[in-house]
Design goal:
Order of helices and strands: HEHHHEEH
CATH superfamily of the domain at 14-118: Ribosomal protein L17
Strand content: 5-15%
Oligomer: single chain
Radius of gyration: 32 Å
Helix content: 40-55%
Number of strands: 3
Structural class: alpha+beta
CATH topology of the domain at 14-118: 50s Ribosomal Protein L17, Chain: A
Length: about 170
């Protein structure tokens, strides 16, 4: 029975799976966005987010705990300097998965997995949405001030010509 065994084994032995997830986490930290299959991205999110969360407090103990998993000094430097500054106030959810479609060779579902605060295009779009408020009319009233009838200038009506009496 598989009671309480929820993680995806990804058709690999545990040592191979741990090495693959560590390498993918290093690539994610260094490049901020990687393309992979959907199953690997979901497994990577479970593996990487606790390590990214550990980077919030820059202590020797937390550096050693993260280094135990990643074994890459450059990735640790990048994680504790630039990534930790951007995610300092975020309570969780440091990665985003965007589905791309199926791969041509084996029809596997592919996706982007990226660090949330490093996608400049999405951050600009979000800032533009906040700055440019949409003006939608919710009623039939005019948004301009209606001028009262007494103050409104009246257009001159053309006078109807009276028929002249024939002489």
């Amino acid at each position: 029975m598989r009671h309480n065994k929820k993680f995806n084994h990804l058709s690999r032995k545990s040592a191979h799976r741990d090495a693959m997830l560590a390498n993918m986490t290093i690539s994610l930290i260094m490049h901020k966005r990687i393309v992979t299959t959907l199953a690997k991205a979901k497994a990577l999110r479970v593996y990487a987010e606790p390590l990214i969360n550990r980077a919030k407090d820059d202590t020797t103990a937390s550096r050693r705990l993260v280094f135990r998993h990643l074994q890459n000094k450059e990735a640790i430097k990048e994680l504790f300097s630039t990534v930790a500054q951007k995610i300092g106030d975020r309570p969780g959810g440091y990665t985003r998965i965007l589905k791309l479609g199926n791969r041509l060779g084996d029809n596997a579902k592919t996706c982007f997995i990226e660090l949330v605060d490093f996608n400049e295009a999405m951050l600009e779009a979000k800032n533009q949405e906040k700055s440019a408020k949409k003006t939608t009319r919710r009623s039939r009233r005019s948004t301009k001030k209606a001028t009262p009838a007494a103050e409104a200038p009246k257009a001159e009506e053309p006078k109807a010509e009276e028929p002249k009496a024939e002489e």
